[in-house]
Amino acid sequence: MIEAVIGRRDGTVRTTTAEDVGDLTALRESDDLTWIDATDGDAGDLERLADAFDVHSLSVDDVAAGGRTKVEEFDAYTLVRVNVIDAGADAASGPTDDLRGTTLGLFIGANWLVTYAAEPVAAVDTVRAAVERNRNAASVRDRGADFLASRVVAELVEEYFDVLNEIEGRLERIEEAVIGDPSEATLHEINDVRRDLLAFRRLLWPTREAVAMLALSDVDHVRERTRKYYRDVYEELVELVELTETYRDLATGSRDVYLNALAMSTNDVMKKLTVVATIVLPLTFVAGVYGMNFGGSPYNMPELGWRFGYPAAMLGMAAVAALLVAYFRQEGWL
């Protein structure tokens, strides 16, 4: 369904629906500030919007296909295509190679804004609710469509912070597990977080570049006085990129700590096995020597015929083992 939020000249806000091209065209040609919201729309809604607002077919394809965040200028409008974070791509749902959910298209005209997405977008709903609550729409109308678009982009970036906070919580739990009792599941969780951070970084970089263009360049349909709002969003994106790099370093550090702990545990096991083998080796030698009992040979060991030969051999082996154990304990190997 296509809905319209209209900031009228008399300072009031009106909300209506517009399903056919004629209604949409009339809204576009009015002197009021018109926000056409078609989030949770379908291909038919996008086609009607394109017809009513002279949206280029390339823009329609860009929004329908999705992709990297970008800004593209046309004669009648400026297109901002931005990715919405998937609400399910958080700690509860596990790793993902792509955090992008739906694609939001913002078409910024002289006195109109069109927002389109195939699914509901929380950021759009938040800004719309704020506009509709403002019974005196004069300030909103005076600020223009580019200002409304900047508020939507700002809300989307706030959602990026929410996802990064979820990842931060996962990192804290990983650090506790690594210091406490790391397991193979801990290593899997570390790798999952590193994959999520890499996907998040791939999403952030083009978004930062696009917002930088809106904030720092002379973009059609974005006035100079509105750029300061985009500059604030740009600074937040810079912070997000820096935090993502920091968290990725922390995840890498946790992985290194886990691998070092695993190596130390393996070395401890090998040391104990070596100690056991060292103790058993002389006992095996003694048992092997006295196992060669050739009774009929003149060169045979005379103690084989001694009545205390067997107890003496066993006591000797026990004494050797005891001496080795005492030595290893003295050296701190046991």
TrEMBL record:
One cellular-component annotation, GO: plasma membrane
Keyword GTP-binding: no
Annotated source species: Haloterrigena gelatinilytica
Catalytic activity as recorded in UniProt: Mg(2+)(in) = Mg(2+)(out)
Localization in the cell: Cell membrane; Membrane
Protein name, per record: Magnesium transport protein CorA
Family, per entry: Belongs to the CorA metal ion transporter (MIT) (TC 1.A.35) family.
Entry keyword annotation includes Magnesium: yes
Membrane topology: Multi-pass membrane protein
Keywords: Cell membrane, Ion transport, Magnesium, Membrane, Transmembrane, Transmembrane helix, Transport
Function: Mediates influx of magnesium ions. Alternates between open and closed states. Activated by low cytoplasmic Mg(2+) levels. Inactive when cytoplasmic Mg(2+) levels are high.
Main location: membrane
InterPro entries reported in the protein's UniProt record: CorA_cytoplasmic_dom, CorA_TM1_TM2, Mg/Co-transport_prot_CorA, MgTranspt_CorA/ZnTranspt_ZntB
Signal sequence interval, chain numbering: none
Membrane-crossing segments per the record: 273-296, 308-328
GO molecular function: cobalt ion binding; cobalt ion transmembrane transporter activity; magnesium ion binding; magnesium ion transmembrane transporter activity
CDD domains assigned: TmCorA-like_1
